[in-house]
Amino acid sequence: MRTRSDRIRHAIGFEVIGLILCAPLASWVFDLDVVHMGILGVAISFVATGWNYLYNVMFDKLMLKWRGRLQKNYRERVVHAVSFELGLLMLTLPMVAGYLSISLWQAFIVDIGLVVFYVIYAFFYNLAYDRIFPVPAVRRD
Fold it and tell me: How far apart (Å, rounded) are the C-alpha atoms in residues 78 and 59?
């Protein structure tokens, strides 16, 4: 399994790069102030960083239990990315609605836009991360 420092590097890298890409794009797509999207992005990033760490520990433990390995095939990567974003959606929906002073339905639309971006981003980020920093071999006793 990955070390704690590797997981922290993974989570921070994911959030920093994602925020740099997403805030200006979301501001443009939803016609919202870039500063508001940046502040909201940072707040969501803090929540997402904690969720990322917890989720990946749980996912790796389940991979070992159910598959006997940590390396993910493409189908497992899709499940990994989509289930991560669905969990994050549940955590961030009230935050988006409250901060932007919009209805839960409008917040859901904004959040779904963010989810679409982040599902695609997560797939490619994790693929690149696993190639740059391969998962150490697991010794099973």
Answer: 13
In the numeric block, the tokens 């959040």 are attached to: 111
Q: How far apart are CA 38 and CA 44, in angstroms?
A: 10
pLDDT tens string 3-57:
889 989 998 899 899 989 998 998 898 888 888 888 998 898 889 889 988 998 9
* Burial class, 110, CB count within 10 angstroms (exposed 0-12 / middle 13-18 / buried 19+): buried
Question: Exposure of 84 by Cβ count < 10 A (0-12 exposed, 13-18 middle, 19+ buried)?
Answer: buried
pTM, entire model: 0.66
* CA R_g for the chain: 16
Number of H helices, E strands in the chain: 4, 0
Tell me which residue of 1, 25, 35, 43 sits closest to 120, measured CA to CA. 25
